[in-house]
Amino acid sequence: MPQTPHEEPAFSYGRARLFHADSLEWLKRQPENSIHGVVTDPPYGLVEYTPVELAKLRAGRGGTWRIPPSFDGSTRSPLPRFTTLSDAELDDLERFFRNLGAALRPALVPGAHVMMAANPLVSHLVSYALDEAGLERRGEIVRLVTTLRGGDRPKNAHEEFPDVTVMPRSMWEPWLLFRKPLDGTVASNLRKWGTGGLRRVSDKAPFGDVIRSSPTRPAERSIANHPSLKPQALMRQLVRAILPVGEGVVLDPFAGSGSTLAAAEHVGYHSVGVELDPTYLALASKSIPALATLNVRD
């Protein structure tokens, strides 16, 4: 278990512990070499999870969030508008993720991997910032998932330009993959720290960088009504891979509804989450046990 000095979690379940804190400040208080892997779905554009924008989202008024209409009788999840970010907001985004990388690095053991969900419109800024913080880029995991984002004709001119798509229909989601520099070779790092690589799917199959995934199903959304909820079928694959020998502690510094911690609990890992928003903290406290025990098709 990680050594968290003089701190009590807001919620515990099995091997999972959830803290109510600002993730950057929390990380600065953690002992060096105490986290063995990170799997997280951060606020891509920052502004969408500010108190002002969250209040608009919860009131159904939009703001940065686009509240899409129902489709085929199903209520569609809100989507943040990353095309509306100003130059100043993009600068803030890059600075934030550079600070996050700098705060993560001391807490990570050598060879620990970081898997971080991103959006194609801003992933280049996040990747550059993490690289500047001293983490090594190790590729990108592609989640193949078809959503209803993009593919629209020009607003208020769809009949005039029927053959035009403003942006491609979103059919994938990037997960950035970084690693703290090794302590020697991969083999020696694995012996000393239990990190340095990714856990294979099986004896015959390595962990691959393309994962086919369905959108999050209604059964899971009924448990954890979070706008960025990722399906457990995906999260369990990512979390399992993050600890190459199956030992250590997985961190999610933006715990949200607790899907990473639930996935870690399901596969038998120790995990720690940090969440600032009290509404999502309460949601995660209820969702983690239910998601961890949910039967899903991988």
Descriptive tags:
298 residues, two-stranded antiparallel sheet, Rossmann fold, nine-stranded mixed sheet, alpha/beta, globular, 11 strands
Tell me the CATH superfamily. Vaccinia Virus protein VP39
> Roughly what fraction of the amino acids lie in strands?
15-25%
CATH top level is Alpha Beta
CATH topology: Rossmann fold
From N to C, what is the helix and strand string?
Answer: EEHEHEEHEHEEHEHHEHEH
Question: Which range best describes the helical content: under 10%, 10-25%, 25-40%, 40-55%, 55-70% or over 70%?
Answer: 25-40%
**Alpha-carbon distance between the termini?**
28 Å
Count of helical segments? 9
The quaternary state of the protein chains shown equals single chain
The helix/strand class is alpha/beta
Organism: Microbacterium flavum
Pfam families: N6_N4_Mtase
InterPro entries: DNA_methylase_N4/N6, DNA_methylase_N6_adenine_CS, RM_Methyltransferase, SAM-dependent_MTases_sf
Family: Belongs to the N(4)/N(6)-methyltransferase family.
Descriptive overview:
- With about 300 residues, this protein is of the alpha/beta class.
- It has one domain (about 10-290): Vaccinia Virus protein VP39 (Rossmann fold, 3-Layer(aba) Sandwich), CATH 3.40.50.
- The protein is built from nine helices and eleven strands.
- It has a nine-stranded mixed sheet with strand order 1-2-11-10-3-6-8-7-9, sandwiched between helices. The protein has a two-stranded antiparallel ribbon with strand order 4-5.
- α3 crosses α4 and α7 (about 230-240) crosses α8.
- The radius of gyration is 19 Å and the shape is globular.
- Residues about 70-75 have low confidence and may be disordered.
